[in-house]
Structure formats: structure tokens, C-alpha cells
Design a protein that fits this description.
single chain, 478 residues, alpha+beta, three-stranded mixed beta sheet, 19 helices, 14 strands
């Protein structure tokens, strides 16, 4: 039977500090809490040179549209309290440039994209179409429309010429890699390679429509998760049509009472992290703009341009590593990583460093107690795990995480960041034991989810999707 995780990893209360490990912990020495790790990151971010370099990065990315917005979204999980107060306003302005890098495009230009792809006037395709966008995507705008049969739809339309611009940006990123890393150390070569691969995939909206429909069917009838059904027959390379789902956006969700935020946080955790271990597939783009609270209390999930299906063998490897870390089996964890090729220079990496590195990123869901996730905890863990300037885990950071695992770890971090923005409280480990140890659920949401799973057992995952061809043009009575 799996050993319960020691409950003394984190100090409780409003102020988290260093924790003296109890006698049941392997090292019997003081361990930095997650707050302690965040404090270490705070000191590193205080460097004036890093703030100055950020200005250079903004200049480099200032003319980049889709890529700049994607980097801005990734950085939006960071807590600005980590930045020294004297630099905070300046740093926030720099980040705002990245987050708000969407091009200003007239509706007439966007309309032209739709009509070019469909080969028909807009009013032949839609009975009604609102000219004012309801949301912005990283490479397009989202509009609300009505089909001729009365169905309300959300229509995501790419900015004209964005495909060429993104591909040019991706080529240029290699030139500016050193500048980017000096200001954003987490933008490693592996992150840029993953960004390049997935931004290319995001340019194909019809492939995304096919994926979204599969996920909507996978979660059909779910008690608290809803994925709007896309309409591949009405989608093209640059236009994605799906059901319109009304609901509260993330900022409104943040204003809800704690109990409601905790419930939504558990749902977000189950969807973005639990899906990998339940279905061997997951959405790789956890982001506040992709979540909404529907009127019936279900949580809706949007945007499936970044989606990954993993070989069950790779998923099992991640499960095995997490169990080893949860049970303090440092030597076993190190050996697993050596055999997998994650550690390619074993003589440089000790078991302790290996274990502490995994805990720096995943300790929040491996401690058996209630934990309130704050933006500072999420940001500290994220930055410490990826910042190559940090002396901690210097050896581990020189190792090679296989691409299939890099994508899932990124989803993990971004989910952690979203939960931090909501300030959610839960025993995340007790939830994760459902997939870590195949144990029965202990939360009401978990019980409802498993009752649904009993009627919708997971099936073998489909092969990774390939790039789809441009959709055929629909008839005027579509």
C-alpha cells in the first residue's frame, strides 16, 4: 500500500516559512517551504539588469503578434508581488505590452477572411453576425453569430496575414533567443522549440475544430464540465465555428465567494491535469481566457489549438515518478529518470537533487493536507524550476526532458498559476490520488465524476491528429 505523504512539508497559517522536517522525513533537516522558494526567486528578480533587459525584449516582440501574445499569456501566471516594489509598475507595463499585442483589425478585414474561406457573402453563411468581437484569441478574434437554423455560434477568425507573420516571428525567435532568456529565463531553447511547433499547429483552425468536437463528445453529459461542440463542416483553416456558451469570465469568477472558487478550482485541476492520467490526452493551454462559468454551474473550457495525446507508456512514467516523489523514494526517482534518459549525466546528479527538483514543481499536489494556492506560491515554484541562474538544481536544469513530457509539465505549471489567481483551497493530493493510486474519490465532485466515468469508460486514445486540409466550402443553406 502506498505510503501517505508526510503532512509537515509546509507550515500552515497565513505566513508560510521554513519548515523543520519531522523525523518521518528522510533527511531529518530543515526544508525550504514553497514560500521560502518564492523568497529566493524574489531576490533574483530584484536584479536591475533583468528589468532593463525586459525593455529590450518588448522592443523585439513589439511587432510580433501571435507569438508575443502567447508569451504574454504564459507570463500572465506570474505574480507581480515577486517583483520588487520599486520596479513593479515598470515591469507591469512591459508585460502589458506582451499581453495586449493583438493587432487592431477592422471588422471589414475580418469579414473578408470569412468570405474568402467560404467563397460566399457573410449573410449566406450566417443569419446574424455581430461586428463587435466578444473575445480575443492569440491569433484572431471571436465573434457571436446565428446560423440560419437559429443556433447561436461562436466564430473564431484569424487575423488576415497572421499565418505568414507568425511563421516569420518563429524564425526570428532563434535570433533573439539570448535576449529573451536574459529577461525571461524560463524561455529556454526547449520552450521556444515547443512554442514554435505548437504555434504552427494553432494556425490550422479546421484541425482544431476536429479536435474540439472529439473532446466535446468525450465529455458529453459530464456533471460539471462542458466543452462546446465545434462544427468542422462549417470550419476552415482560418475560421472555427462552434456552439456559443454563455457564462462568467475569469475575472468575474475571481470575485465569487471562496467556496465557489474552490469548487471551480477543483474542476479546473481535474480537467487540465486529471485528463492526462484518465484519458492519456489533455489540453496544453490552461489560460484564464479559456475558462468560463456557465449559468447551470458547469465550467466551460474553450480553445483546443494546443492539444496533446500521449502514449500510455509515457503517462505511466509520469505517474511512477510522481508516486516516487510523494513517497520520498529519491533513489528510485533518480533511477527512473536515468533509465528514461531524462538524466543523461548520472555522475552529476544525486538522488536528493533529483527529488528536490521534482518537489519544487509538484510539491503542492503531493502534500496530504489542505493548501491555499496563492499567486506567489505558483510563481515561485514556476520560476525556481526553470530559472537557469538559480543555483538550486543546476545539474537537473542541464538535463533533457523529453518533448512529450515538456508539454505536460507546462500544462501543470499554467494550471497551478490559474489556481493561484483564484486563491483556491483544497487537498490537491487527495484529489490526485484518484489517478496516482487508483483510489476512490473523497470529494463530492470526484464522486460525481467517477459515477459519470462508470457510464463512459475511457477508450484507447486515437492517434495524434495530423494537419487537416482546408475544409470544403459549405452550401448557402448550411
Amino acid at each position: 500500500m502506498a505510503k501517505q505523504v508526510p503532512t509537515s512539508r509546509l507550515a500552515r497559517g497565513t505566513k508560510l516559512g521554513a519548515v523543520a522536517a519531522s523525523s518521518v522525513i528522510r533527511t531529518q533537516r530543515a526544508r525550504l517551504s514553497m514560500r521560502g522558494r518564492s523568497e529566493a526567486v524574489r531576490a533574483k528578480m530584484a536584479e536591475e539588469s533583468m528589468i532593463r533587459t525586459t525593455e529590450q525584449v518588448v522592443m523585439v516582440l513589439g511587432t510580433m503578434k501571435g507569438v508575443a501574445m502567447k508569451l504574454g499569456q504564459m507570463m500572465s501566471v506570474l505574480d507581480m508581488d515577486l517583483v520588487p516594489e520599486a520596479h513593479r509598475e515598470r515591469f507591469q507595463k512591459r508585460l502589458a505590452v506582451l499581453r495586449n499585442a493583438a493587432p487592431s483589425v477592422s471588422f471589414e478585414s475580418m469579414r473578408q477572411v470569412i468570405e474568402e474561406d467560404f467563397g460566399q457573402p457573410l449573410n449566406k453563411i450566417f443569419a446574424e453576425f455581430e461586428a463587435e468581437p466578444i473575445a480575443a484569441a492569440s491569433i484572431g478574434q471571436v465573434y457571436r453569430g446565428t446560423l440560419h437554423d437559429g443556433r447561436q455560434v461562436a466564430v473564431k477568425v484569424q487575423y488576415p496575414g497572421i499565418d505568414a507573420a507568425v511563421r516569420a516571428d518563429l524564425k526570428n525567435l532563434a535570433m533573439f533567443r539570448r535576449v529573451l532568456q536574459s529577461a525571461m529565463p524560463w524561455v529556454t531553447p526547449a520552450v521556444l522549440d515547443e512554442l514554435r511547433l505548437n504555434m504552427e499547429s494553432e494556425l490550422d483552425y479546421q484541425a482544431e475544430a476536429n479536435t474540439q468536437l472529439q473532446i466535446a463528445e468525450l465529455y458529453a453529459g459530464h456533471p460539471f464540465i462542458v466543452v462546446p461542440r465545434s462544427m468542422p463542416e462549417l470550419s476552415t483553416t482560418r475560421v472555427l465555428v462552434s456552439e456559443y456558451v454563455a457564462g462568467k469570465g475569469f475575472e468575474e469568477i475571481r470575485q465569487l465567494p471562496a467556496a465557489q472558487r474552490d469548487r471551480i478550482g477543483e474542476i479546473i485541476y481535474r480537467f487540465y491535469v486529471g485528463s492526462l492520467f484518465t484519458f492519456n490526452e489533455f489540453c496544453g493551454d490552461p489560460h484564464p481566457g479559456n475558462v468560463l462559468l456557465a449559468p447551470d454551474g458547469k465550467v466551460g473550457f474553450l480553445d483546443f489549438g494546443l492539444f496533446n495525446r500521449m502514449d500510455p507508456e509515457h503517462v505511466q512514467f509520469e505517474l511512477t515518478c510522481l508516486r516516487a516523489a510523494a513517497e520520498d523514494r529519491a533513489e528510485d526517482l533518480r533511477q527512473l529518470m536515468i533509465e528514461r534518459g531524462v538524466i543523461d549525466s548520472p555522475e552529476e546528479i544525486g538522488a536528493e537533487e533529483c527529488l528536490e527538483y521534482v518537489l519544487a514543481a509538484s510539491e503542492w499536489c503531493l502534500i496530504d493536507e489542505d493548501l491555499t494556492i496563492t499567486p506567489e506560491l505558483a510563481s515561485g515554484a514556476f520560476l525556481l524550476a526553470v530559472d537557469p541562474r538559480a543555483s538550486e538544481f543546476a545539474g537537473m536544469k542541464q538535463q533533457n526532458l523529453p518533448p512529450e513530457h515538456l508539454f505536460s509539465r507546462r500544462a501543470d505549471f499554467l494550471t497551478f498559476g490559474m489556481l493561484g489567481q483564484l486563491g483556491c483551497t483544497a487537498n490537491w493530493h487527495q484529489i490526485s490520488r484518484e489517478w496516482l493510486y487508483d483510489e476512490p474519490p473523497v470529494t463530492e465532485l470526484g464522486k460525481a465524476h467517477h459515477a459519470w466515468l462508470a457510464e463512459h469508460p475511457p477508450v484507447a486514445p486515437k492517434k495524434p491528429r495530423t494537419k487537416a486540409k482546408k475544409a470544403p466550402k459549405p452550401s448557402s443553406n448550411a
